[in-house]
Amino acid sequence: EGLRAWFASYRSWLEESAQGRGERSALNNHGTWYDVQVLAIDAYLDRVRPALATLRRSYERITQQFAPDGSQPEELKRTITQHYCSYNLQGWLALAACAGRVGHDLWSYTGPTGSGLAAAARWLLDHAGRPWPHQQIDDFDLDRWSAFYHLIPADLRPDPGEARDWVSSEDPWRVKQVFTPHDGIRPYWILGHRQEQ
After folding, report:
1. For residue 194, what are the CA distances in angstroms to 91, 125, 151, 154?
2. Phi/psi class of residue 62: alpha, beta or left (left: φ > 0; alpha: ψ in -120 to 50)?
3. Alpha carbons 148 and 150: distance in angstroms, whole number
4. SS3 for 163-176, per residue?
5. Element (H, E) at 4
6. How far apart are CA 62 and CA 15, in angstroms?
7. Which has the closest alpha carbon to 35: 48, 47, 18, 53?
8. Distances (CA, A) of 22 to 12, 85, 146, 182
9. What angle do CA 131, 121, 82 make, to 5 degrees?
């Protein structure tokens, strides 16, 4: 009960504080990760209507954040674009997983401009194993590509032969399991992930 009360209080702060409202309206990864938090909290607290409101906002956010080719214009304004494009998509992976548990398939959604998560995943993974063509002034952990490969739906993954040069293992359990918190990949990320046959 104490934990539920803490989450309810934190959820109220996210919704009502100036900082929370700012994050909710952000057009970049800040908005994505805001939605991840509130959707997960509402699911934990069995708050159906607020969860559905977050899901509605997520569909709108897909159109706001992704160009029809799958690129992320807001994240490409940064100086560490490879990180932020990956970090934002990692948030979408978490959001899509939560949404899928309540019957919403964010992966199949295509917005009115043609943008969608499927195109975003393809766009990002098209750059895997190649020099990143945008500004990236810091190091980037290339093992993040392997986690993406295993976390996106199987029908969106490149052919294993094409990914051979940049996927560290076709067995997700052999891919690095703990990344820095800055990368946005949950510790032991494969646990609880449903493998598609």
Report:
1. 17, 20, 9, 11
2. alpha
3. 5
4. HCCCCCCCCHHHCC
5. helix 2-16
6. 20
7. 53
8. 14, 20, 33, 21
9. 35
What is the b/e burial string over 147-184, where b = at least 16 CB atoms within 10 angstroms of the residue's CB?
bbbbbbeeeebbeeeebeebbeeeebeebebebeeebb
- pLDDT by position in tens, the chain (length 197): 999 999 999 999 999 999 999 999 999 999 999 999 999 999 999 999 999 999 999 999 999 999 999 999 999 999 999 999 999 999 999 999 999 988 899 999 999 999 999 999 999 999 999 999 999 999 999 999 999 999 999 999 988 888 888 999 989 999 999 999 999 999 999 997 765 53
Residue type, 107: W
CB 45 within 8 A of CB 11: yes
Tokens at 26, concatenated: 């952000």
Residue 67, Cβ neighbours under 10 Å: how many? 16
In the numeric block, which tokens belong to residue 8? 């309810």
* Separation of CA 55 from chain center: 14
Question: Rounded to an integer, what distance in angstroms lies between the CA atom of residue 145 and that of residue 141?
Answer: 8
- Return the residue matching tokens 């996106």: 152
The amino acid occupying position 92 is W
